[in-house]
Each structure stands twice: as structure tokens, then as C-alpha cells.
Amino acid sequence: MAQCYVRNMISFLTALLAAASLFVAYSIYRARQISRAYAPDGSLAEVDGAQMHYHFVPASQAASGQPVLVFLHGASGNAYDMKLAFESAFEGRYPLLFIDRPGLGFSQRSRTGRNTPESQAKLITGLLARLGIESAIVVGHSLGGAVTAAVGLAAPERVKGLVFLAPVSHVWPGGVNWYYTVAAMPVIGWLFSRTLTIPFGERLVPQMLRHVFHPDPPVSGYAASVRLPLLFRPESFRSNAADICSLKQAVRQQSAHYGQLVQPSLIITGTKDTVVWPSIHCEGLLQDLPDAELLMLGAAGHMPQHTHTDEIVSGIDRLVERVAGSGGKARVPETGAEAVPAE
User: Fold this and answer.
1) Which stretch of DSSP H or E encloses residue 162?
2) Is 266 within 8 Å of 164 (Cβ atoms)?
3) Measuring CA to CA, how many Å separate 313 from each of 40, 178, 227?
4) Pairing relation of β-strands 136-141 and 265-270?
5) What secondary structure, in 3-state letters, does 53-95 show?
6) Residue 55's closest CA among 41, 75, 36, 38?
């Protein structure tokens, strides 16, 4: 009986090793395919030893003097997401800067290895300085909303206005999806991202998109338009997982400083967002920010930049006017903005 048990165990381990080898081989092959299919088509700049990838779209001559709109994407994305949503709407009217956040798209993570909004803000503000941008309005989606707050705290002299789009900003109940926790682990995560991420992750894309776009259907051709396969490269997936797993503690500390964000701010949320709860994050920002307004989008989910673009564009235009009315300087109102209950 002992010999039978040993034979069965050897057979099981052999089959497991063979399956793992197949997953590794496929992952290497597919990762190389992705790297060949997608190359950086923006500009590259080195900031604090890390390479940052971005797209800069200048304004027309008639729009000279307008602040630069700086767009920061959320988790699992890259600059093409915000570029797809807003480039055509704003092109010519403002200078536009679409950035791959550190570790995603074609941008490298900070050499410190840290994954917090604060560490990402250091690279992003360094890029703004490198590009000579002295007046910016930062627009951040989802996890990019936490980074937007960090950028505003890090460079208030450059950042004249803030737009929080379906943002993560405060501590929420519960944790994160198990596969992010596993992928962020030091050794197991390295193995996980090189065996299972590509073969299973790519096949779950339709389900993932239905979830984040709900209640609206996903935009046709969205995955191809935003180069979504870039996410599943092992290092990118690990970076994304590290961002997500470190976020809760980061916003716990960062939110204590939101009262310092005296720039005119706009908070935008959909009433049907089930990914990031408006009742926690948007109401929290309204309470904490000295000069904030709320734009509620009826029946919108977590991706309103693609489903309610016109309303958001109008809201950002109004924020630009508010910034201009403040002389480009942040002001502290006598009372905070009144919170609008989220549905």
C-alpha cells in the first residue's frame, strides 16, 4: 500500500510539473507576442532613474495660456484609457498630458520599489517639472484618484485644480481580490504571474469589462483600443497587484492630509458604481476638501469617462473657469462644500 501511495504521489507531482511547465512556456510565448505587438508610441523621459511614458498633445495657438490637463488612469489600465475617453473632446482647447502610471503601460516603477500614491506622485510631479509644466489640472480615475490627491499634496504650486473621477480616496470595508494578494507576494507572486496570469487573466477579460462598465455595456473594441494585453505581462500584473494591495493603508494615512488640498476640486461619480462606493469615497472627499463640488451622474457605473463623456467634459470646463476665477491660486472657502448624498 505504501508503494502504491508513493507511485500515485510521483504520478501526481509529475503531472503537476508538466502542467506548470506548459503554463510557463505559454506565458513566455504570449508575453513575447504582446511585447512585439505593442511598442511605446508616446514619449519617454527619465525621472529619478525611472522611465516614464506619456503622450503630450499641445493646444492650438488660440488656447495658449490654458492649464495643462493631466490624466491619470486607474488600476489595471494605462494612458490609452483616458486618451480614448478625452483626447478628441479636449484636443486643441487645452494642452493634454496622458501618463502611464509607474509600473503600468510603458512606465517603470520607482526604483525605491514602493507602490504608494505618494511614491507615484513623486515621479509624476518630477515629470511635470521635467516638461516645464507650471500650471496643471490633474484628472484621476479610480485608483488614479488617490494618486491625484497625492500629486496635489506634493506640488500645490503646480497643481491648480483637481478632478476625482470615480475615485478611491478613503478606507473601505473588506479587502481586495485574492489573485492580487497572491500576485503581490514576494516569491509566490513571481511564480503566479509567470504561470497563471496570462492564460487565465486574458480569458476573464470579457467578464471583467462587464463588471467595471455595469450597468452600461462595455465600449465596443475597448480592450484592443486601450492595449489591455499589456496588463498581463508578468511585471505589469505584479505592479498593478502591488498598487492595489498597498492602497488601503496608503489612503488611511493620506486622507488625514486632505484638508491641505485647497485647490478648486471636482468630484465625479456614477450613482450605480459598484466597484468604488460613492458613499465612502466621494462623500469623504466632500467632507475633507475645502473647495470641492460634486457631479453626480445618474445610472452611471465605474467607467463614466466612456459612457458619460460629455457631462464630464462640461464639468471639467467649469472647473477650469473656477481655477481661472481664483487667479490660478488655490483658495480656502469660508465653509466647506455641502455633501450631496450618493445614491
Assistant:
1) strand 159-165
2) yes
3) 27, 36, 24
4) unpaired
5) EEEEECCCHHHCCCCEEEEECCCCCCHHHHHHHHHHHHECCEC
6) 41
Q: Which three cell numbers stand for residue 98?
A: 496622458
pTM: 0.90
Q: Identify residue 172 by its one-letter amino acid code.
A: W
Place of cell 487573466: 201
Q: Are 316 and 69 in contact, with CB atoms under 8 Å apart?
A: yes
Measured on CA atoms in the order 122, 91, 318, 274, is the torsion positive or negative? negative
**Each residue's pLDDT tens digit in the chain (343 positions)?**
566 755 656 655 565 566 667 778 888 989 999 999 999 999 999 999 999 999 999 999 888 899 999 999 999 999 999 999 999 999 999 999 999 999 999 999 988 777 899 999 999 999 999 999 999 999 999 999 999 999 999 999 999 999 999 999 999 999 999 999 999 999 999 999 999 999 999 999 999 999 999 999 999 999 999 999 999 999 999 999 999 999 999 999 999 999 999 999 999 999 999 999 999 999 999 999 999 999 999 999 999 999 999 999 999 999 999 999 886 544 332 323 333 333 2
Contacts of 80-88 with CB under 8 Å at 24 or more apart are 80/105, 80/225, 80/226, 80/227, 81/141, 81/226, 81/305, 82/139, 82/141, 82/305, 83/55, 84/219, 84/222, 84/225, 84/226, 84/306, 85/305, 85/306, 85/309, 86/139, 86/305, 86/309, 86/313, 87/57
Q: Which of 128, 79, 113 is nearest to 99 (CA)?
A: 79
Q: Which residue has the cell 466612456?
A: 306
- Please tell me the distance from the alpha carbon of residue 207 to that of residue 229, in angstroms, as a whole number: 15
Nearest Cα to Cα of residue 73 among 171, 158, 146, 142? 142
N-terminal to C-terminal alpha carbon distance within the chain: 64
